[in-house]
């Protein structure tokens, strides 16, 4: 039973955590894909930027959270979201819009976004240095240990405070996005533009407005995901390095341009990662006595070591591109 | 669709005097001489060799991006493969490994791998024997998982032994150029795999996949201590030419430079030939006029794959030459994005698809990049002094390293500006209309 | 003053001109039909009117006001509606959402206009919560026309509204077009089913190679033996 608790902590909790972050990240990527039709490589660094904004604000006003009974970093999140949204709109105006106006191929926008990613990295490193920093500046990170009331169970289920915030905010973001896309006039116009841009234009929808709205949403979501990830571990200027591939894998698994698919894809990739690095020996050990003598289990039964975690999203990506390039859901082909 | 032929204006156009080329290369020469005057011969020759290595990479990328519009975001992955091969083939044999039973053990595990692959492939064909398709798929997956576990456990055992008893498996003690060639072949093989998966799909997917493979290659080289010594790095790597110990820095580097120049000349000549052969005409037809050449059918994907693999081979070779020159194999030194982008800037600034322009771009951008290091430090010092002296600011201690890190900002800015204002580069490749 | 007037319009997609001097006039309440062989530039002319491609010579006037090279959303505001030949619905959105998008610029008139469109196309009401991409060809065409009507246009441009439809549906669509016209919407449509279309047309324009070949009332074009021989299949 204790082994099973170990499984819950290392796979279920950990998988939900990375799944949530990949899901929010992948939704951002997929929204850009569906409206502007290019793979936005700067998304992961936008996430880092959002987290960095929270770090800067928290360092500047370390006690601001006390009044709300929440960690300062969480209180600062809405401000950081607004700033990141502003950054996203500004980047589009400065770099992507001129390229679009030239009618370039999507791949040129991809390259442009890689240029933007390097600029963001440069700026973040200039101001944040290169080391890791804790977003809990003045607050204490609560850790909840729950021992399930089962016989013989001693290992608790461990969930940290930022993970709770992560789950709640993921749920809120997903519901809010769903309502926005299906109920609001602008949200529907966004879907229309993703479906058929020419017809959206012919219906009088101002495509520039939709593009700006998309960037606001994308920037806000990026700030949420980046901040929550940094809260859970620490803020690192090279966060994006660990995010880019899983996020793109998630977006493609879900079918590009398909927000719900991206959410599912995020969890697929998150759980695949944790399952792949989990040492299955832990689960099999209790049954050791019932194995035949010739079968000696190696002590490490993980599919890949944590240092090779990045292989997992890549493997998923290649597999999906080979067998079902449109994604697991019948995604539209953009 | 008739096969594209050289358009009339291509033949009839009078050979103009290459004024632009001459002027640009003259400016470049002045810049190089300036660096020589400023930094000394040994430093400057090193810079030129490195620029030449980058030129090989840039030629690889200009084939992919300029000839065919494929964006390879993982140049450094292929470079690292080339670097690894250069290291593995050239460094001395490690007797502490070969004199034990470990080579046999390793060979046994490799045999396991082959056996496991055969078994899984066999299982995936079970439906031919009348096994229902669903059952076959389930069986194949289970078999693959179990065999993978068996093989990876055996491998972990052997590699752990190697690390603890022999350090790493060492090299083969062959001339470096053997490693360069094998590195090119290996990079080409990986390129074939990636290209095969992605080239029929949206162009963005190739960028994502190449970025991913670069990260994986780097993770593998960094963590496989038994093969590469990982973060402990391997040095020195023997040169194929007499080293600094025999000839002194400047002369030995100059000799190495002539080797790289020779390689570039050979590549340049071969590319030139291929470009004007029917193969090259077909490639250009695909690039310039994709829609009507689509009538050529499946051949297009074939040609695209050839282009992509060719580019990857050049990157592998360039990586080998570069790593041997640095005389250091450090898996962490291959920064996937930053250096890939340096190469990309070289290509776009020089003129995508224009080989001469690419070489110009490589040397010019590399000089700018290298010179930006002292410049960044100088600027930073200036700002710090000003800030502390005039405004009484308090700067964090590690400003220098930050300033160097922040140089990626320059590449990023450069790339977006060039894309916007000079997407065809300084020496644009003339696009002719075919058929 | 004519509702819509094109004077010597030249234009194309970048390099070469497809339209080489086209003239058209359409009075309010009229149905105009453009016919002509494939590749004549009929669709291109509609796109030129709707601001989707560059007009580099000549002018297009809406109630006397020059409109060439205005962006489509401005034209929608000025009362023009356009139903393209292909890709004329939002496939992943429901029928109702498709219609709502038509009135994007007039959010206040969504409710009454929805009611009107459902009255004009009763099948759409039953399918209002279905994705438009799942409908049959004729129903999609209704969605497309309904979408354009939602903006309460004074002139509606239709590109081959009956292409690929069975004769039954074709007559249905023509009947609807006449009804729409009857409530005061000027219609300019391109049609391959030339005989049936000219039969309901006040004006007919026969285009070939980007130029007017014949311009007359629908009835006289139908009666003209030259037109019949070259353009109406004998
Ligand atoms: N998007 C486009 N780009 C370039 N040429 C086009 C485009 N659309 C149509 N054409 C060309 O314009 C000409 C007229 O086309 P079109 O107006 O669609 O003819 P139709 O009278 O059959 O509707 C054709 O020769 C066609 O090849
Ligand atoms: Mg047409």
TrEMBL record, chain A:
Keyword annotations of the record: Amino-acid transport, Cell inner membrane, Cell membrane, Membrane, Transmembrane, Transmembrane helix, Transport
Membrane-crossing segments per the record: 12-35, 47-68, 74-95, 107-128, 164-181, 210-233, 239-256, 263-282, 302-323
InterPro entries: ABC_transp_permease, BCAA_transport_permease
Membrane topology: Multi-pass membrane protein
One annotated Gene Ontology cellular component of this protein: plasma membrane
GO biological process, one term: L-isoleucine import across plasma membrane
GO molecular function: L-isoleucine transmembrane transporter activity; L-leucine transmembrane transporter activity; L-phenylalanine transmembrane transporter activity; L-valine transmembrane transporter activity
Lineage top rank: taxon: Bacteria
Cellular localization per UniProt: Cell inner membrane
Predominant location category: membrane
PANTHER family hit by this protein: BRANCHED-CHAIN AMINO ACID TRANSPORT SYSTEM PERMEASE PROTEIN LIVH, HIGH-AFFINITY BRANCHED-CHAIN AMINO ACID TRANSPORT SYSTEM PERMEASE PROTEIN LIVH
Stated name of the protein: Branched-chain amino acid ABC transporter permease
Organism: Vreelandella zhuhanensis
TrEMBL record, chain B:
GO MF annotation list: branched-chain amino acid transmembrane transporter activity
InterPro entries tied to this protein: ABC_transp_permease, LivM-like
Protein location: Cell inner membrane
Pfam families from the UniProt entry: BPD_transp_2 (PF02653)
Membrane topology (UniProt): Multi-pass membrane protein
Chief place of localization: membrane
GO terms under cellular component: plasma membrane
Domain of life: Bacteria
Keywords linked to the UniProt accession: Cell membrane, Membrane, Transmembrane, Transmembrane helix
Protein name as catalogued: Branched-chain amino acid ABC transporter permease
Native organism: Vreelandella zhuhanensis
Automatic annotation (TrEMBL), chain C:
Domain ABC transporter: 4-234
Record-level Gene Ontology MF annotations: ATP binding; ATP hydrolysis activity; branched-chain amino acid transmembrane transporter activity
Transmembrane segments: none
InterPro entries in the cross-refs: AAA+_ATPase, ABC_transporter-like_ATP-bd, ABC_transporter-like_CS, BCAA_Transport_ATP-bd_LivF, P-loop_NTPase
Record SUPFAM superfamilies: P-loop containing nucleoside triphosphate hydrolases
Pfam assignment, any one: ABC_tran
One GO term of the biological process aspect: L-amino acid transport
Keywords: Amino-acid transport, ATP-binding, Nucleotide-binding, Transport
UniProt KW ATP-binding keyword: yes
PANTHER family named in the record: HIGH-AFFINITY BRANCHED-CHAIN AMINO ACID TRANSPORT ATP-BINDING PROTEIN LIVF
Family: Belongs to the ABC transporter superfamily.
This protein's name: ATP-binding cassette domain-containing protein
Species per Swiss-Prot/TrEMBL record: Vreelandella zhuhanensis
């Amino acid at each position: 039973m204790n082994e099973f608790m170990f499984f819950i902590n290392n796979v279920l909790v950990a998988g939900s955590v990375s799944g949530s972050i990949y899901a929010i990240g992948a939704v951002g990527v997929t929204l850009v894909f569906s409206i502007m039709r290019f793979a936005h490589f700067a998304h992961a660094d936008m996430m880092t930027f959002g987290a960095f904004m929270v770090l800067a604000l928290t360092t500047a006003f370390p006690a601001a959270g006390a009044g709300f009974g929440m960690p300062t970093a969480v209180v600062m999140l809405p401000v950081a979201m607004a700033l990141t949204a502003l950054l996203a709109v500004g980047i589009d105006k400065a770099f992507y819009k001129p390229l679009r106006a030239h009618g370039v191929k999507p791949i040129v926008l991809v390259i442009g976004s890689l240029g933007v990613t390097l600029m963001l990295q440069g700026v973040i490193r200039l101001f944040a240095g290169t080391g890791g920093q804790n977003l809990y500046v003045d607050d204490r990170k609560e850790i909840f240990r729950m021992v399930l009331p089962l016989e013989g169970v001693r290992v608790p289920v461990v969930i940290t405070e930022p993970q709770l915030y992560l789950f709640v905010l993921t749920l809120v973001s997903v519901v809010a996005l769903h309502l926005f896309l299906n109920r609001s006039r602008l949200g529907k116009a966004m879907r229309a533009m993703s479906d058929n841009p020419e017809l959206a234009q012919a219906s009088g929808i101002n495509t520039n407005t939709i593009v700006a709205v998309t960037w606001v949403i994308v920037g806000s979501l990026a700030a949420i995901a980046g901040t929550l990830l940094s809260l859970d571990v620490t803020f690192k200027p090279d966060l994006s390095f660990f995010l880019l591939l899983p996020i793109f894998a998630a977006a493609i698994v879900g079918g590009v341009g398909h927000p719900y698919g991206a959410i599912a894809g995020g969890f697929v990739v998150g759980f695949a990662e944790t399952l792949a690095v989990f040492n299955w020996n832990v689960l099999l050990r209790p049954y050791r006595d019932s194995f035949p003598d010739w079968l000696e289990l190696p002590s490490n039964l993980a599919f890949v070591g944590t240092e090779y975690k990045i292989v997992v999203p890549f493997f998923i990506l290649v597999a999906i591109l080979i067998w079902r390039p449109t994604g697991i859901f019948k995604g539209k082909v953009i | 669709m008739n096969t594209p032929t050289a358009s009339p204006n291509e033949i009839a156009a009078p050979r103009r005097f290459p004024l632009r080329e001459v002027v640009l290369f003259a400016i470049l020469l002045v810049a190089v001489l300036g660096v020589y005057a400023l930094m000394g011969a040994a430093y400057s020759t090193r810079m030129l060799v490195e620029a030449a290595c980058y030129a090989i990479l840039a030629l690889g990328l200009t084939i992919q991006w300029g000839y065919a519009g494929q964006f390879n975001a993982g140049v450094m992955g292929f470079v690292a493969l080339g670097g690894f091969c250069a290291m593995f083939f050239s460094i001395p044999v490690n007797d502490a490994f070969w004199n034990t039973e470990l080579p046999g053990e390793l060979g046994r595990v490799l045999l396991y791998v082959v056996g496991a692959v055969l078994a899984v492939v066999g299982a995936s064909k079970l439906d031919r024997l009348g096994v229902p398709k669903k059952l076959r798929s389930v069986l194949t997956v289970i078999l693959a998982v179990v065999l993978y576990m068996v093989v990876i456990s055996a491998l972990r055992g052997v590699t752990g032994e190697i690390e603890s008893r022999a350090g790493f498996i060492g090299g083969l003690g062959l001339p470096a150029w053997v490693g360069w060639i094998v590195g090119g072949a290996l990079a080409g093989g990986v390129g074939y795999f990636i290209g095969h998966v992605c080239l029929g799909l949206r162009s963005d997917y190739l960028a994502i996949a190449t970025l991913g493979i670069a990260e994986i290659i780097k993770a593998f080289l960094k963590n496989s201590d038994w093969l590469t010594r990982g973060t402990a790095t391997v040095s020195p790597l023997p040169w194929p030419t007499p080293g600094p110990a025999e000839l002194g820095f400047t002369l030995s580097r100059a000799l190495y430079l002539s080797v790289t120049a020779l390689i570039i000349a050979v590549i340049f000549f071969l590319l030139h030939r291929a470009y004007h052969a029917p193969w090259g005409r077909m490639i250009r037809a695909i690039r310039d006029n994709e829609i009507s050449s689509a009538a050529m059918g499946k051949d297009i994907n074939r040609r695209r794959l050839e282009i992509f693999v060719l580019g990857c081979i050049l990157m592998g070779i360039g990586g080998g030459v570069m790593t041997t020159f640095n005389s250091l194999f450090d898996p962490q030194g291959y920064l996937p994005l930053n250096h890939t982008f340096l190469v990309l800037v070289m290509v776009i600034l020089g003129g995508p698809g224009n080989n001469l322009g690419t070489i110009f771009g490589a040397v010019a951008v590399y000089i700018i990049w290298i010179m930006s290091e002292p410049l960044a430090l100088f600027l930073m010092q200036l700002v710090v002094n000003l800030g502390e002296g005039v405004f009484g600011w308090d700067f964090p201690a590690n400003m220098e390293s930050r300033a160097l890190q922040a140089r990626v900002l320059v590449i990023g800015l450069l790339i977006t500006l060039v894309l916007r204002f000079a997407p065809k580069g300084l020496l644009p490749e003339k696009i002719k209309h075919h058929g | 003053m004519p509702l819509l007037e094109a004077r010597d319009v030249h234009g194309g997609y970048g390099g070469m001109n497809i339209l080489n001097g086209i003239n058209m006039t359409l009075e309010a309440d009229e149905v105009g039909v453009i016919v002509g062989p494939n590749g004549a530039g009929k669709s291109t002319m509609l796109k030129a009117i709707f601001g989707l491609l560059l007009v580099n010579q000549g002018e297009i006037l809406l109630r006397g006001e020059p409109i060439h090279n205005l962006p489509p959303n401005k034209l929608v505001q000025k009362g023009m509606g356009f139903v393209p030949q292909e890709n004329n619905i939002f496939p992943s959105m429901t029928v109702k959402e498709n219609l709502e998008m038509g009135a994007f610029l007039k959010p206040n008139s969504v409710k009454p206009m929805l009611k009107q469109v459902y009255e004009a196309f009763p099948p759409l009401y039953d399918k209002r919560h279905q994705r438009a991409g799942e409908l049959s060809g004729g129903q999609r065409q209704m969605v497309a026309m309904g979408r354009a009507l939602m903006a309460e246009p004074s002139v509606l441009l239709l590109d081959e509204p009956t292409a690929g439809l069975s004769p039954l549906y074709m007559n249905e669509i023509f009947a609807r077009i006449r009804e729409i016209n009857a409530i005061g919407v000027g219609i300019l449509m391109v049609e391959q089913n030339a005989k049936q279309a000219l039969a309901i047309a006040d004006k007919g324009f026969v285009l070939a190679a980007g130029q007017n070949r014949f311009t007359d009332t629908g009835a006289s074009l139908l009666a003209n033996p030259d037109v019949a021989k070259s353009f109406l299949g004998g």
